[in-house]
């Protein structure tokens, strides 16, 4: 792990709230008052996008550890059949409603194609959330103009998939007022997975802590 060179780039600027919001709806609890109290105490939901790509970082070995490190967060798996925008929007909205949370309480976590689609939806202003952790996404140019969003964007990518050309994703993000931080990892490949998991874990803890603090501040 020590032989891996990686760099963190941070952008901490003012944000403008996105217009899109999810509608939440109540669900019946079989456990009565105790279950409702526990649900009320949960101010943040981490929604893990389980898409067609096999996870390389957010694996069954890592997710339980991240859950233990964030005991007050509700962790939920959002299974998507494909990585299309309509599928991700539909499945995320259904899970948000089912868990009876609101968009500012939601952190999205994904890898690969599903993560790239979710990232594009957030940057289009179509998908509202407190934060997004996108792992192993390709940094190809965005086919649209970024809409200002209050969501915190965190990326863990391999440098070989992430060019510095002016039109590419990271350079475009740096030119906005979005709260974005990126970790770019270098080979050797044998060390990348461990370094990526460490970087992703740090981002998960940060996003949950920030969303929890904002929820308490706004009384969500």
What does this structure look like?
With about 220 residues, the chain is an alpha/beta fold. About 35% of the residues are buried. The protein is built from six helices and seven strands; from the N terminus they run βαβαβαβαββαβα. It has a seven-stranded mixed beta sheet, with helices on both faces. Helices cover about 35% and strands about 20% of the residues. It is globular and about 40 Å long. The model is unreliable at about 1-40 (pLDDT under 50).
Task: Offer a few descriptive terms.
alpha/beta, 220 residues, 7-stranded mixed β-sheet, globular, 36% helix, 7 strands
Can you count the beta strands? 7
Shape: globular
Structural class assignment? alpha/beta
Low-confidence stretches: 1-41
**How many whole angstroms does the radius of gyration measure?**
17 Å
Mean pLDDT: 79
Largest sheet geometry: 7 strands, mixed
Strand content: 15-25%
**Strand order in the sheet with the most strands:** 1-7-6-5-4-2-3
Report how far the terminal alpha carbons are from each other: 40 Å
- Total helices: the number is 6
Q: Provide the succession of SSEs.
A: EHEHEHEHEEHEH
| Helical residue percent band | 25-40%
